[in-house]
What we know:
With 280 residues, the chain is α/β, with parallel strands linked by helices.
Amino acid sequence: MRKLPPLERFIRRSRVYRGRVARMVTQAKLKHPCVFMHVPKCGGTSLSEGLYSLVPLNLKIGILDSPSIRRAMALQYYDRDEDKTFHDEGDEVVRISEFRERLLLMHLAHECHLIHGHFLFSETAYRHFGDRYKFVTILRDPIVRTISSYRMATRTGHFEGDFDTFLDSPKGRRMILHNLRYFSGIPDVAPGEEAAALEKAKTNLARFAVVGFIEEQADFVRHFREVFGRAPSLGHYNRARDEGVELTAPQRKKLEALSWPDLEIDALARKRWGCAPRPG
């Protein structure tokens, strides 16, 4: 939100705070504290604004802000102010994942009513707080999501190279396996270790109270309301318009082959939350 033009930023922040103030007056809070695990490029940034507005102003919100985390870690470890070294899917993926988990645990210990950010599923967080907090996330077609991730990474300078280079790179592989990594809690799944990580991911998927899909937003709102008693406004969604990448037949075949764990998690989640299988 902070990168938006000033007027739009003011309007969107005003909308959030207006909702929070109204709920402070009525004390119309969520039935359960919420942990929103934000899988990248799945519409969670816009969704988060709707969730923030559901939290009364007198209750705390914990946000794991990605650019700030990247810069802070670069300052701490290398004494330089930049955001590329500690990119979430870069070479420092293990260290940054551990740092994010500590922030998640800090916000839980601080008793925030809503926690939102890019962090992998934490067994420690669930073991100590899963009896009070409900875990939530929203997903997207893994193939479309990966293409969107590639476009954003090249646009922001976090990846240099064409799509073939992306498919063969460690960073590209981590982006392709976002579902597997986030649900298993494993920062970097090596080739050959996908099946074991997938079993962990399946176990953790069952621990989520709500999993939605960007393509079926109304279903997510309905499921969220059933669990939390309230739901974010659809008007707060703001899906980006990606132009996409024209893939050759070999590129698409390779991407689909690399994506098999994420496709399986997506299919399991859709079945669990009553969504029809994706076409094709």
